[in-house]
Design a protein that fits this description.
The chain is of the alpha/beta class and about 400 residues long. Helix content is about 35%, strand content about 20%.
Length: about 400
């Protein structure tokens, strides 16, 4: 029997604010996180801008010694998870730790560790490669460090599905709680890929915007879009079985209603051109949640501002919803925070929760004019008013499609 699953805690580290309160204030204020890259000298790079996290001090969130044994993506994860657990008021001393899981994914892991230790190998030889290189680099260490930091002994997974990682992590946690494997799960994604290799690689792929104008660099669905802007950070939520949450008097933000996935089986970087894969993920999420298409009024799109994504995601929405697509409000949080890769879907999930709570759909910041086939409502302006459901999309390299459905059911 399926159990009901609710959101009881949230934590965020983002380019427009650390902590959910500051992040959400940034969204409401239409703050953009784009600026010249500061983490390395990017003067020889085609892409000069990124959405970096500002003023992050790891010792404010964890022990200094522990922080030194973590790469930046893990530090972001531990900080966001700490906020989410505090927000949920989940006292691990009162819980069966083996019934509380940790599904925190990263699409990339630590490119910084790879760059640093490869340099040592080339310059000083194999004996000088650091003994902690491997455990600091591998992407599962976000989940590992979060579980260690907070004593989470239940099922622990690192989902790595590129840009769908955050959504898949939360979706798989939803399933684990829904079917009784866990009573609660800390879930989300973390990423810190603003590094020489990360920026150079995505530049070579022609996926990044080469704009030097922060207000026009990440412009999803705009006719002048030229690619995404690399972001970084973490989004972590606490998912909990409804009666477990009620029994301890937890505050309930929203309910996770449905989760749908598919594979394009088409191309390693491009979504299926007809949108069929992403469409199936959306339909699967709605059917899983028992919600008819006509009842949905809002989609938080993957919306990367690349030519292919925005066009093919639009086709997917039309294919999934038919005539109802014209009545949907569609926005992209990446218009403010850039593309957080493995953390994107998790931070966007948090945005959806806040939007549902407040009856507010943020605008796609920077969107001015679309093109012929992009003829849906991409939220050039923000919208206020209650709505029942939010659907969040994430589409990853390799053809990974994931959609998750949220609602405000009691």
């Amino acid at each position: 029997m399926k159990r009901r699953v609710v959101v009881t805690g949230m934590g965020a580290v983002t380019p427009i604010g650390i902590g959910v309160k500051e992040f959400w204030e940034g969204v409401r204020q239409e703050r953009i996180g784009f600026a010249p890259i500061t983490k390395f000298d990017a003067s020889d790079y085609k892409c000069k801008l990124a959405a970096e996290v500002k003023n992050f001090q790891p010792e404010a969130y964890m022990d200094k010694k522990a922080a030194r044994r973590m790469e930046l993506f893990c530090q972001y994860a531990v900080a966001a998870a700490g906020e989410a657990l505090t927000d949920a008021a989940l006292d691990m001393e009162k819980e069966d730790a083996y019934r509380v899981g940790c599904f925190v994914g990263s699409g990339v892991g630590s490119l910084q560790a790879l760059e640093r230790e490869h340099g040592r190998l080339q310059e000083k030889g194999p004996s000088r490669v650091g003994p902690l290189f491997v455990p600091m680099m591998i992407s599962n260490m976000a989940a590992g460090n979060v579980s260690i930091a907070y004593g989470l002994k239940g099922k622990s997974l690192n989902v790595a599905t590129a840009c769908a990682t955050g959504t898949n992590s939360i979706g798989e946690a939803f399933r684990a709680v829904q079917y009784g494997e866990l009573d609660a799960c800390v879930a989300g994604g973390a990423e810190a890929a603003v590094s020489p290799l990360g920026i150079a690689g995505f530049c070579s792929l022609t996926a990044l915007s080469d704009s030097t104008n922060p207000s026009r660099c990440s412009i999803p669905f705009d006719k002048d879009r030229s690619g995404f802007v690399m972001g970084e950070g973490a989004g972590i939520v606490v998912l909990e079985e409804l009666e477990h949450a009620r029994a301890r008097g937890a505050h309930i933000y929203a309910e996770v209603l449905g989760y749908g996935c598919s594979s394009d089986a088409f191309h390693i970087t491009s979504p299926a051109e007809d949108g069929s894969g992403a469409a199936r993920a959306m339909v699967n999420a709605l059917e899983d949640g028992g919600v008819v298409k006509e009842a949905l009024t809002y989609i938080n799109a993957h919306g990367t501002a690349t030519h292919h994504n925005d066009l093919f995601e639009t086709r997917a929405i039309k294919l999934a919803f038919g005539d109802h697509a014209k009545r949907l409000k569609i926005n992209s949080t990446k218009s403010m925070i850039g593309h957080l890769l493995g953390a994107a879907g998790a931070v966007e999930f948090i945005a959806c929760v806040k939007e549902l709570q407040e009856g507010f759909i943020h605008r796609t910041v920077g969107l001015q004019e679309t093109e012929e086939e992009l003829d849906l409502d991409y939220c050039k302006e923000s919208h206020s008013g209650e709505f029942a459901y939010a659907l969040s999309n994430s589409l990853g390299f390799g053809g990974h499609n994931a959609s998750i459905l949220l609602g405000m059911r009691p």
